Amino acid sequence: MEYILKPFLFSSDLLEEAVEVVIDSGEIPWPQDVTLCVPPLSTQVTLHEQAECLATQAFLRMHGLRFTLDERPNAEFMSLTSKLPLLKVDDHFVAGFDAIVAYARLRIRKQLTDEQESAIRPYVEMVQVTVKNAELYAAWFDDTNFKEVTSPRYGSPYTFPLNKILPLLKRVQIKTYLGQNSPLASLDDVRESLQCDLKALSERLGPRPYFLDDVNTNELDALVFGHLTAILTSKLPNGNLVEQIHRHQNLVTFCQRVDRMFFAKEVGLNNDLYNTTVVTGVRRLPQMIIKSDA
Amino acid sequence: MAQFFNATQQPLPEEGVVAQTLDLDVLSGVRTIVDKVNLEGVGRTKDVVLKRECQRIFQSENFEELVHNVDYTIKEFQRMGLFKAVGALIDVGKDANNYEVSFFVKEPSRLFGSIQTTVSGSGDTGLNVAVETPNVFGAGQKFRIEQGFGTKTKSHFTLSYGHPIQLSPLKYVNTSIFRRNFLLDASGLFNVDHGVGLDVQTELGPLTRHRVGWEGSWRYLNSLNPRTPYEVRQYAGHTLKSAVVNEIVHDTRDHAMLPEEGVLARFSNELAGLGGDVKHVKSEANFQVNLPIWRSIVAQASLGCGYIFPLGLGPVSIGDRYFLGGLNLRGFAQNHVGPHAGAFALGGSAYWNSGLHVYAPLPFGDPHQPLLRHIRLHTFFNMGNVASDAKDLPGLFHTFPASVGCGIVLALGKLARLEINFARVLRAKETEVQTGNFAFGFGVTYS
């Protein structure tokens, strides 16, 4: 199958491509005309894309950087490197969470100190590598999840037969990427690796409202919010990932807090964050319903 | 035998002169009975096919009809691609009124290959390799595989099967599978198409062709350039197009690229949206009139117009829109007339363009000599405009770009034109991209 599809592979967001973005340094005001282009978040976007889109939005909102959200079914192909989301600033483009954060940082007054930077860096890396790989595996590699959720969502803007072909093509790319970059071999591995990451994050967060201090937020907060919210609101039938997060109640509360603080105006965006019923067939944790206190 | 082929292969003007001096009125009075038809040189061509083609010769009642039918049969043989060369001989039979017709034919070799190089207006050079199997199953069927490579990302692959139809108003059926990669330079996009096509060709008259075709293609558009603007990028991505095309061409010209006389009228309609997500109706008409003035000096006038009506909610895809510039509006860069976003062309959903030319042969040599027939000097006046959508239609004739100039035209066979022009832009809006005064042009369509 993969051999047949190889000639049709066009580009992949997982490959690093060098794209030159000219960034002027110094104190530059945030431009007026800024558009954040994302796939339709409620119908089309898949797990890892949703994580990055939410994280980017959270980051921009946290720093009061204004943007208009533009939902386009072909957002992936509008992007330079196929990375999502795509930020359009005047006449140039920045794509992907990392690049957007690097770009936006030049326009933020409050910079992180070196000490703070080195404190959050390992966690940022961890979320971007292992949590992302876990998401990719769960959403794309696992047959049930792929067939029931990921494929219909990813193929939703297209007509037959493209709605069947394109998810398969994307799956081939992601399988190749995971084969080279990740040791994950089963959903149990995914759960284990995710549990490990969540434990580290949960310990780092502790009882505080945000990761670094009580008031200020930074890219780690945005990233953790994006990825965890994506997982919490995903409806993957297989893997029980939601339950993994609910084991760390402070992380769930953290996601709800960020959502209320920065996304409050958009009612209904992350509803699932509040009324997710945890599906536990088994064990220690009692079944619970998390309620919004907003 | 070889001499015979040489003689029949060349459409010498002397032959025509002889044919005209024959008084056919006299010949129509001569009753004829055709005894037999000989075919020499037949190998793999099927007997059934040949018998059917020769039926009409036996039905000839007088000599005039016989000559016409033999001529028609030769043309049919050529149309069906049965033979590489055909010659005919009408001989007397046993009695005075009895005749025998002999065809001397040469079948094409089983495998035929060709290699050609191409040059395009944007400076892309390429190589085309084609392999075909003429008359493969004995009734003129043909497989053809074509692969083209370009120095830029341009390339194409086509596998097609052509099937001629005998004694029917339908003349030819062609099916193909293709992959095409090409650039939309002016818009900063590249395109990858995969698809299948089916064509049925008929004849409405001796010089009028009719084509009905269906094409289903999977198109992938993506940006070529980091600076490609947002307005163009919104068309990027995958689309599925399923379209029926209906085309009628009436062409009485003596040469497709450098005509000296004749008229061309072409109407084409496309309905996209029978499945797939590209939905529009596209209508286009082109006319060209050639008037010989004196000797080989020819005046030519042409007019083209087209309109796309979107059927869905979304705008018409950039891959289907109209662009002007280059050989159809000289003085402006290829595809660079019309709505723009920055330096990138967006194309439009309506256009018109017109051209007036006077062609003259080179001042030395015989203008009808094979080489010099393909070279002409010309002066031109071009005008045209592209409108982005229906709201913009009144602006089409309001301030339209126009240019005037002169140059030299080289016809590359009957397939393409190569031009070197000195052009001056008379009027332009601000959005177009102009070429310098001297411009080099290459193209299949022109006006």
Keywords:
heterodimer, A: 294 residues, mainly alpha, Glutaredoxin, Glutathione S-transferase Yfyf (Class Pi), Chain A, domain 2, 12 helices, 4 strands, B: 447 residues, mainly beta, Ubiquitin-like (UB roll), Porin, 2 domains, 16-stranded antiparallel β-sheet, 3-stranded mixed β-sheet, 21 strands, globular, disordered N terminus, mitochondrion (chain A), Mito_Protein_Transport_Metaxin (chain A), mitochondrion outer membrane (chain A), membrane (chain A), transport (chain A)
CATH class membership of the largest domain in chain B: Mainly Beta
Shape of chain B: globular
Main sheet of chain A: which strands, in order across?
2-1-3-4
Helix content of chain A: 40-55%
CATH class type of the largest domain in chain A:
Mainly Alpha
Count of beta strands of chain B: 21
- Uncertain regions of chain A: pLDDT < 50 for 5+ in a row? 14-22, 275-294
Q: What kind of sheet is the major sheet of chain A?
A: 4 strands, mixed
Number of helices of chain B: 6
Give start-end ranges of low-pLDDT stretches of chain B: 1-21
Radius of gyration of chain A: 19 Å
Number of domains of chain A: 2
Reading the helices and strands of chain A in chain order gives: HEHEHEEHHHHHHHHH
Mean pLDDT of chain A: 80
Major sheet size, sense and barrel closure of chain B? 16 strands, antiparallel
Most extensive interface, chain pair and sizes: A-B, 26 and 21 residues
Major beta sheet, strand line-up of chain B:
4-5-6-7-8-9-10-11-12-13-14-17-18-19-20-21
**Oligomer category:** heterodimer
3D architecture notes:
The complex is a heterodimer of chains A (294) and B (447). Chain A is mainly alpha-helical. Chain A has helices at residues 2-5, 47-62, 75-78, 97-105, 114-141, 143-154, 162-181, 187-205, 219-233, 241-246, 249-263, 272-275; strands at 34-38, 68-71, 86-89, 92-95. Chain A has a four-stranded mixed sheet with strand order 2-1-3-4. In chain A, a hairpin with a 2-residue loop joins strand 3 (86-89) and strand 4. In chain A, helix 2 runs antiparallel to helix 9 (219-233), helix 5 (114-141) packs antiparallel against helix 8 and helix 6 (143-154) packs across helix 7 (162-181). Mean pLDDT of chain A is 80; it is low at 14-22 and 275-294. Chain B is 12% helix and 50% strand. In chain B, the strands form three sheets. A 16-stranded antiparallel sheet of chain B has the order 4-5-6-7-8-9-10-11-12-13-14-17-18-19-20-21, with no helix packed on it. In chain B, helix 4 packs antiparallel against helix 5. The two termini of chain B are 45 Å apart. The model of chain B is unreliable at 1-21 (pLDDT under 50). The A-B interface holds A 8, 10-11, 19-21, 35, 37, 72-74, 76-78, 80, 88, 91-93, 158-162, 165-166 and B 192, 194, 218, 220-223, 226-227, 229-230, 233-234, 236-238, 240, 275-277, 342.
